[in-house]
Design a protein that fits this description.
Blueprint (H helix, E strand, L loop, with lengths): L6 H12 L3 H4 L1 H8 L2 H28 L4 H10 L1 H35 L6 H18 L1 H27 L20 H16 L15 H30 L2 H4 L5 H37 L1 H8 L6 H4 L10 H17 L2 H29 L14 H20 L1 H12 L1 H12 L1
Length: 433
Amino acid sequence: MKRQISFGQALATVVGSVIGAGVFFKIGTITAQTGSTSMTLFVWILAGIISIASGLTISEIAASLKINGAIKYLDYTYGRVWGFLFGWAQMIVYFPAQIGALSSIFGVQFVSLFGIKARYSNLIAILLVLFLLGINLIGTKFSSKMQSVITILKIIPIALIIIWGLFNPAKIPAPIIPLTVGTGHSFPTAISQGLLSALFAFEGWIVATNLANEVKNPEKDLSRAIILGLSAITLIYVLINYTFMTVLPIDQLTNNNNAAFQASMKLFGQFGGKLVTVGILISVYGAVNAFMLTGMRTPYILAQDNLLPFSNKIGKANIHTGVPVVGAFIVDAIAIVMILLGNFTVLTDMLVFVMWTFNTMLSVAVIILRKREPELKRPFKVPWYPIIPIISVIGGIFIVVSTIINQFVLSIIGIGLTLLGLPIYYYMQKKNN
């Protein structure tokens, strides 16, 4: 593949992958789990700190190892089977669930905005997947440039909500201290469940490592894109959620999937509210495109090592566009099935659990490689080592363990889908040998 993605395009992919539906539609879930404005803001800040620590840590590997993506980082550190399982989980759970969940939200908001019958929301979601598939098949360069434009456009409604909200003279009280939970909520459960929900809104940055072989200067640009992107996203999330809580009382936010729309209507009136909702749709559209852009490369990377059946087909990119066409069809076909069968909350919680299991392993990998290969050239070193990696690891372990405790069935399903890849791995190993 050609090195044709600039720092700006990589940054746009990070921001575009992360900022999507979560920032607008998780506030209702989190307020229900925490019961207070202070704890709601705290879990957003905590999710940002853990994500930035993880981004700083994994950026050291991305800059040091001249190999393509997190799959290869796990291969290099732990052995090929772990890299395969990560790629397998991305291929059948993570990317399809992201594309499916976000497209479903797009469909629901689209029919609501334009007064279309609700039963057509899944059809619109599927049409969005097929449309963006066509756009991405045109070529990586075109899709990346479009992502840069969409990223700029999606910031507009967020900026409007934040600015109007902060200067809104009719703000309602939204205390941020003392740190408390609502009546009937326990402190540990509020943190663990709220954090899991908030982390969905931060999901997506790690997929930028799949573009390592296509970024013009990966040693510097990839790590910078991840770190700057996550820092900006954390600030945006804290400000916009604070704005929501100063516009709508917490009892109106709780379990409210239309909180962003209702807050916009209060701030801007009916026309302005609808205009901001169009901006929200653009934001979700951009997130789906970013996940599609990076997701199609996961089957391609696995097939390059002959780890999938029909690898000779899956591991080929279009000679003219550089797009892994078969990989795109695989991920999007699973996404369409998830749209028809899935549930937004279940899909998002499962993908967060599965991905943070591997994210934690990647953070531990930095510590392992520091000891195993001290002479390895590291163009970027994680600052304040080992404090930052330890924060990332502890945060990841907390997420995984709390999910197993609080959502045991969901975690078992996530683990089961991941382990389904083992028979395929050993079959292909035997076939290759």
